[in-house]
Amino acid sequence: MIYQRSRFFRQGGSAFGDIISHIHNGYREAISEVGRIIKPGGYLLFDIDNKWNLGLLSEPHELKAAIQTISSGHIREWSFLDAFGDQCSLHFKTFRPSEIKGLLNGAGFTVLDFRGLIILPNIIPQRFHYNHSPEKPLARAVIALSKLDRIIHRFPFFRGFGIGAMIAARKNG
Fold it and tell me: In CATH terms, is domain 13-171 a member of 3.40.50.150?
């Protein structure tokens, strides 16, 4: 992964997970606050939910929500069965690459790297990704597509199509 091999992580960079995607109404303020508290020269590593991804092809309601808000990210609903077999839903704010880069630039950061995560496995609907025996054909397909992801995520064209994206940024100053 980007953070395991990066000089940013080894130098003690600041990081948070895709928590920004969980903040529906306050993500701008959250990014601004991160920009305020990180010292100049400090690093920020985090991931986001990406607006445009191949999973939209297998989730018509998600595709409709994405198309209705072309210029910015949208609220994505992820439905799944939990460990007890109960239906659950989580909501995420998705971001277009240019949208998150603009927010970071406005908070005083320079984006150093942007990498799409989990690109090809989302050709198969997510409901088949979890709690399935690895011997089943769809589970094997998800595993094979994940291995192929390790190769294609290096190519710039594919970076914007992961269901998520890992971002490395440095505080200006």
Answer: yes
